[in-house]
Design brief:
UDP-N-acetylmuramoyl-L-alanine:D-glutamate ligase; single chain; Carbohydrate kinase; about 20% strand; about 30% helix; globular; 9-stranded mixed β-sheet; alpha/beta; fructokinase activity; transferase; 4-stranded mixed β-sheet
Length: about 325
């Protein structure tokens, strides 16, 4: 890999509320941890040994210092302009239900620094709030549009947040537009239910695959695993049985491992998933499902390293 994977999107601090015994403290007090879906993906990629650069924006306040230390400590490069002394670092307050599933309330502003593609960049990933919250959403959409003729693989995880974009009709229209600019789209079953209520995940995947560029749609199903539909066909992967602590960051760990798996199969960059077979897709999705499972066994958005993945599930 001649240049890092480029990840674009929000970095913020998750504040897990005091109401849960599973907040990682053991004392019922709120806990602040680095988060933001794209930032989690960047950390997950770096931990899996994939060089990664993140375009984001946060301040130099205490939360921003916490984010910076976390990202640098995990080997994530920060693009110029990502740390802004005049910016107030965004936060998300997470509440966990009895099963450890998180819901969020956000205090966020999103306006990224200038977006550009470095020479040799194999993949660009974006998603979540950054792709839907203005003014940054327009900047991302225009940037992805400029990559049409570039030898780079584009991946998208909408990671729908109804508290930010409560109207599913307009949100789905925006997701469709971004998906058409992407080679691979990852959704959760919760995304599907919010964006296209009453529609099956399979029908949603087929609709997204009608765009000429989109080659694959992967849909996660929590403890049931994941399904992927490509131009080669459909594959289903079952999730391993685990004791769930919480699900915070599990989808982001899945996304990071999905990109890392595609990279290990030499399917990024100019290939744009052109060599994606059903067998290689099954390997990649299985790798991603198992990465997410590890994250669910510990507190917060804590994606596994490559060594942890191998030690837990084997090579």
């Amino acid at each position: 890999m001649s240049a890092p994977v480029l990840v674009i999107g929000e970095a913020l601090v998750d504040i897990v509320s005091a109401g849960s015994k599973k907040n990682g403290n053991g004392n019922g007090k709120p806990k602040a941890t680095p988060g933001g879906s794209p930032a989690n993906v960047a950390v997950g990629l770096a931990r899996l040994g994939v060089p990664t650069s993140l375009v984001t924006r946060f301040g130099t306040d205490p939360y921003g210092d916490q984010l910076g230390a976390h990202l640098f400590g995990n080997g994530v490069q920060l693009a110029p302009g990502s740390v802004d002394p005049g910016f107030r670092t965004s936060t998300a307050t997470a509440k966990l239900d009895a099963a450890g599933v998180a819901s969020y309330q956000f205090d966020i502003t999103w306006e990224p620094p200038a977006l550009s593609l470095s020479r040799g960049c194999p993949a660009v990933h974006t998603g979540s709030i950054a792709t839907l919250l203005e003014p940054g959403a327009t900047a991302i959409r225009e940037f992805l549009g400029s990559l049409a003729d570039q030898p780079v693989t584009v991946t998208l995880d909408p990671n729908a947040r109804p508290t930010i974009t409560p109207d599913p009709v307009s949100t789905w229209a925006a997701v469709r537009e971004l998906a058409a600019l992407s080679d691979l789209v990852k959704l959760s079953d919760e995304d599907c239910e919010f964006l296209q209520p009453g529609q099956s995940p399979e029908s949603i995947a087929v609709e997204l695959l009608s765009a000429p560029r989109t080659q694959c749609v992967v849909i996660t199903r929590g403890g049931e695993g994941a399904l992927a539909i490509s131009r080669e066909g459909r594959i289903d992967v079952t999730a391993p049985k685990i004791d769930v602590v919480d699900t915070v960051g599990a989808g982001d760990s899945f996304m990071a491992a999905l990109i890392a798996g595609l990279n290990s199969h030499s399917l990024l960059s100019a290939a744009r998933l052109a060599g994606l077979t059903s067998d290689s897709l099954r390997d990649v999705v299985d790798y991603a499902v198992k990465a997410a499972a590890i994250t669910c066994t510990r507190h917060g958005a804590d994606p596994p390293t490559a060594a942890e993945h191998t030690a837990t599930w084997g090579a």
